Amino acid sequence: MITYTKPPHPREYRLVFKNVDRVGWDASLQCYLRDGGYQDLQKALTLQPNEVTEEVKKSGLRGRGGAGFPTGMKWTFIPPHNTQPVYLICNGDESEPGTFKDRYILHQDPHQLIEGMVIAAYAVGAHVAYIYLREEFPEAARILTHAIEEARSQHFVGENVLDSGFNLEIHVHRGAGAYICGEETGLIESLEGKRPYPRLKPPYFPAALGLYMCPTIVNNVESLCHVKHIIARGGDAYARLGTPRNTGTRILCVSGDVIRPGYFEIEVGKLTMRELLYDVCGGPRNGRSFKAVIPGGSSSKILRCDESFSLKNPDGSERLLGFWDIPLDFDTLAACGSMAGSGGVIVLDDSRSMSWVLNNLNAFYAHESCGQCTPCREGSAWMKKISARIVAGEASPQDVATLESIAYQIDGRTVCAFGEASSWPVEAILAKFRDEILADTQTAIDRQPQHPEAQAQRRFLTARGSAP
Ligand SMILES: Cc1cc2nc3c(=O)[nH]c(=O)nc-3n(C[C@H](O)[C@H](O)[C@H](O)COP(=O)(O)O)c2cc1C
Ligand code: SF4
Fold first, then answer.
1. Which CATH number fits domain 354-464: 3.40.50.2000, 2.30.30.100, 1.20.1440.230, 3.90.640.10?
2. Bridge partners of 128?
3. Is the predicted pLDDT of residue 34 greater than 90, yes or no?
4. Confidence of residue 454 (pLDDT cuts 50, 70, 90)
């Protein structure tokens, strides 16, 4: 029987986080082997590489890094008659605000990741793999480097892995610390020793033209850990966890205005928003009420707690789904106009000013834009300047319209998805909390009632019927 220093909630299903906070557990190989470690690798090596990929496809695993792309399908995108080296990269950048799951795997269960990576590398034919870590994870780099050496000493990594004839070197690489290094092509540029300017897709889809222009599979830490459990159970059995099309478990990181924030591994789609925020996280704090939730990391569109969504049933008919009944899966959150993203659930109660939230997000994206393309470089900085004016009570209602127009001019017009990541929060907050943001522009009017712009604002608000 497993005991934990911080016991999981009864609604959790611990698979990847089985050993996180486990009493008597440490990151050593000895500890991992006592628990049956590397047996799934042994099993995988008895299969052909394409059979391993087939199991991952059957499992229905979707990437846990942000986009939710099917992992097995990604692996099959390596060109069929490829003669170049294939690389596997574990994305350990964990840079999406609100996300704090991969670090626990890296710190407490490094061999689970290494085992998953060796199996994945075997499936895709990679003989060199990298674990790319954000600069802020020096302890993870130390733990992983040691764990790889331990694994090498027992022939789980290196030449002729477990006498199978398969060779694999795994290197730990530390970035210099930038959000954009989490974007897979920016990561690849950084790994090549360059400034992390993302590459255009197409043509630079990593599976075809990745590291050193060779086929490269980039997967998130959590995704790679799931591979081991898929081999252990078999793809079909794994797919019975969670819900159809949204299989397995995933780790949700809940932060913000709840009584019990933290990480929770749940079966995908088996918990609703209400169950997560009230049953698992204990509800709002200090007698307040919930206002809004950013469900999948800061880049995902915000949802109001009093919203309802009109969704299509498989037979084409429509149904109304209230915010609280949203099952936490990829497809429903997308149908509600947001996304499950990286699993970072940021909760806001009614004490939060949406202008402040907007400015906080804008400040992050303006700081992190890599600067390669104009709409993102200039637009993210403009958006931040405007929202800072709103927070300072120095903005006009026209500023709100300008802000919205900038967001829509960034969205879809940039080299990488950072463009959407920075504009979606603005679009969603302005669409859903417009009156609150406009009310904050009121302060400027109150300060200088005779100013021509203040008079224009007053006319604007009077026409909308929202002047005080
Ligand atoms: C701006 C930006 C930041 C990203 N940051 C991360 C990150 O920190 N970690 C991560 O795994 N994926 C991140 N991604 C997604 C990766 O580009 C890539 O899709 C992912 O690593 C693929 O792994 P998966 O298929 O296992 O999810 C980011 C994407 C964008 C656009
Ligand atoms: S969208 Fe932003 S982060 Fe992405 S390449 Fe362009 S400037 Fe860089």
1. 1.20.1440.230
2. 87, 169
3. yes
4. low
Domain boundaries, the chain: 29-240, 246-349, 354-464
Name the fold adopted by 246-349.
Ubiquitin-like (UB roll) (3.10.20)
**Atom 18 (ligand 1): residue with closest C-alpha?**
184
Give yes or no for a cis peptide into 202 (omega within 30° of 0): yes
220 in contact with ligand 1, CB cutoff 6 A: yes
**Unique residue bearing structure tokens 């290197």:** 171
Has domain 29-240 been given CATH number 1.10.10.10?
A: no
* Segment 326-381, tens digit of pLDDT: 999 999 999 999 999 999 999 999 999 999 999 999 999 999 999 999 999 999 99
159 CA to middle of ligand 1, Å? 30
**SS3 label, residue 7:** coil
Question: Which atom of ligand 1 lies at the shortest distance from residue 418's CA?
Answer: 1
* pTM for this model (two decimals): 0.94
State which of 91, 190, 216 you would mutate to test the pocket of ligand 1, scoring each by most atoms of that ligand within 8 A of its C-beta.
91
- Ligand 1 pocket check for 14: Cβ under 6 Å: no
Residues β-bridged to residue 107: none
Euclidean distance between CA atoms 390 and 399, whole angstroms: 8
